[in-house]
Amino acid sequence: MLNRKVKKLFKEQAEYYSIESSTAKSSPLVKLFLEWANKSPKKQIKIGEFGGAAGQLLAELDKISPSSIKPYNIEIVKNYGDRQVLKKIKFFEGSILNPLFDDNFFDCLIIRDVLHHLVGKNLKETAANQEKALLELKRLIKPGGIVLIEELVTESQLSSRIIYGLSKLNSKLGFKSKSFEIIPDMIISFLTEKSLGRIISEIFEKEKIKIDKIPWNQELKSRLMHLGAKNWKIILAITKKEQ
């Protein structure tokens, strides 16, 4: 179960997350998608993104795809529905924890920085949410399809737990800091590189997994926000074996 603050956060931040910035174009997932799509025999590719905001990445993939795409954007609040940057995007209000799609529905599935927002009422429930999300991706992807994941992780489990505790406390206190991007409804639970790798290898043990690690924002402000711990973007391309 998601903490009610998660929906509140993304409802409040709808305008911010809907900005047409360069982050979609610069995402490593763009290149990974193109590599896979160029090898795919499909004339139409059904793509789903969970947490796709205004559909910025889906719009970018529509531009570069060698095949036509049928894009689906699933967000936990409906506020993003009328903000989609591409008319052909099918918008759904829903959660990755309970997606209302049939098994093997998508050719390509994408999540970017979603897992650390799947907070529950405690750390145990949060970990269960994160695992459930990955299990749903496995269920929904077709044989031969690809799951693309971009996730910010930390090197320290201790710092992750402290950040979770402090952000949860702040959701009650209401402290704000524009400089450090602190807002009351943002509760965060980062996975470590090791813990994410373990979950991925357990859930997708029979699939082809390509993994990369990119250093992420090592400026002093970012290091302070992560309590001195280093952080990375983990980039995953998981291809489901043909049956």
Explain this structure.
This protein is α/β, with parallel strands linked by helices and 243 residues long. The protein has one domain (4-153, 189-216, 230-239): Rossmann fold, CATH 3.40.50. Helices cover 37% and strands 23% of the residues. It has nine helices and seven strands, in the order ααααβαβββαβααβαβ. It has a seven-stranded mixed beta sheet, sandwiched between helices. β1 (44-50), α5 (56-64) and β2 (68-75) form a beta-alpha-beta unit.
Which key features would you list for this structure?
7-stranded mixed beta sheet; 243 residues; alpha/beta; globular; 9 helices; Rossmann fold
Q: How are the secondary structure elements laid out?
A:
Blueprint (H helix, E strand, L loop, with lengths): L3 H9 L1 H4 L5 H4 L1 H12 L4 E7 L5 H9 L3 E8 L14 E4 L12 E7 L10 H18 E14 L2 H17 L19 H11 L4 E8 L4 H6 L5 E9 L4
